[in-house]
Design the sequence.
């Protein structure tokens, strides 16, 4: 039976498709937001070209990927009853990776992360009623832990219902976790909480540049409004996908929630700046408040100003950068026998790639089919 995956056209979703196709037999059922199959194919090629060449993509697309055109915010995922029935009879597990990471809009986060997750959970409930649901893996985030300071947060201490959330994204992902756990059979649900997913430990290329841009700025800024000993928890996408695929197929994982994180092995800012070749920079944590105010002010200026765009980015990342909080990964290490490769191993190559490509992946479009000569 197949795995049903949401979010395949996204950054982590592309890693999950590549990992699942590599590590298991059989087809993958993919929910893709597109108006017609050709558009879905083009959107999947766009996300998967980080992982394979066009010939491999074509072969896998034709033989292993079954595309469902839909949208998680639509009733029944926007699938017709016949198509939904076909999906239910072909898939026995779900990896729910689709989400909105839009930290500016509570409405969009609520619609996609809560209402959308409910629609995916309802599909899994239908599988459970038929006795076919083997597993529901929910890709969540460490952001569900809300505001933290100087902590190594454990999985069972992350959720607090009476404490302020970090932002709309964290709040709605927390609700989504709760929905899945409450509404699906015990033992079927696995929750994965990755920390900040940046780059790939095996190669320099990436398609996701937001955090990379923030670190490029860090490496070059004349002074940093951070404490050099504060840590930030970063994990590479290849490890996150490998861990999810591996635990998703385990018959009896030991736990139902896993932090996919670097934990106490996380680098501090002094180490990160050194790895990125930033030389000796003054660290001035006292400047944090004026710096945040400056970012707020600049981000409200002209949206097309380069400086405004960088300020907006830093405004949203700043709360994460100053928490000095990591996410304990003892469960993961125990279960997999290893933790993630450290950011220090690949950060320099990633940064060099990003700067060389001006923080843009050189996407190739889907080749046009050859025009057939009309028979004369
Ligand atoms: N990136 C990180 O650092 C990080 C860290 C921790 C956890 N996570 C979690 O990892 C997952 C993937 O994140 P990502 O960084 O890969 O995000 P991403 O690149 O923005 O991808 C999001 C995916 O969700 C899909 N999606 C959004 N709205 C949808 C809708 N209404 N219907 C169907 N699909 C929809 C998107 O489809 P379209 O292509 O059609 O927009 C895309 O495939 C999320 O659950 C996120 O919470 C990410």
Sequence:
């Amino acid at each position: 039976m197949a795995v049903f995956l949401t979010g395949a056209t996204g950054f982590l979703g592309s890693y999950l498709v590549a990992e699942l196709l590599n590590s298991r037999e059989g087809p993958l059922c993919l929910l893709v937001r597109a108006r017609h199959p050709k558009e879905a194919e083009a959107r999947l090629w766009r996300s998967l070209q980080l992982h394979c060449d066009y010939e491999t993509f074509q072969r896998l697309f034709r033989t292993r990927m079954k595309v469902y055109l839909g949208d998680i915010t639509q009733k029944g995922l926007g699938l017709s009853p016949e198509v939904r029935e076909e999906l239910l009879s072909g898939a026995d597990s779900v990896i729910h990776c689709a989400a909105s990471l839009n930290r500016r809009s509570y409405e969009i986060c609520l619609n996609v992360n809560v209402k959308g997750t409910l629609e995916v959970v309802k599909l899994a409930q239908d599988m459970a009623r038929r006795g076919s649901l083997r597993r529901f893996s929910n890709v969540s985030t460490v952001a569900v832990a809300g505001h933290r300071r100087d902590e190594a947060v454990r999985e069972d201490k992350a959720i607090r219902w009476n404490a302020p959330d970090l932002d709309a994204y964290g709040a709605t992902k927390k609700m989504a976790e709760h929905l899945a756990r409450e509404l699906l059979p015990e033992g079927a649900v696995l929750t994965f909480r990755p920390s900040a997913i940046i780059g790939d430990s095996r190669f320099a290329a990436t398609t996701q540049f937001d955090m990379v841009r923030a670190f490029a700025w860090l490496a070059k800024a004349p002074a940093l409004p951070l404490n050099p000993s504060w840590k930030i928890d970063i994990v590479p996408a290849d490890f996150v996908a490998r861990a999810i695929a591996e635990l998703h197929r385990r018959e009896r994982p030991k736990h139902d929630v896993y932090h996919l994180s670097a934990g106490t092995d996380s680098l501090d800012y002094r180490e990160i700046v050194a790895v990125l070749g930033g030389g000796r920079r003054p660290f001035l944590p006292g400047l944090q408040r004026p710096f945040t105010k400056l970012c707020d002010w600049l981000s409200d200026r002209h949206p097309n100003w380069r400086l405004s765009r960088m300020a907006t980015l830093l405004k949203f990342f700043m709360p994460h950068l100053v928490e000095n909080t990591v996410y304990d990964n003892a469960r993961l290490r125990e279960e997999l026998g290893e933790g993630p490769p450290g950011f220090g191993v690949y950060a320099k190559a990633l940064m060099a790639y990003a700067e060389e490509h001006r923080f843009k992946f050189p996407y190739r479009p889907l080749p046009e089919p050859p025009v057939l000569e009309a028979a004369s």
The chain is about 45% helix and 10% strand. The chain has a mean pLDDT of 93. The CA atoms of residues 44 and 151 lie 39 Å apart.
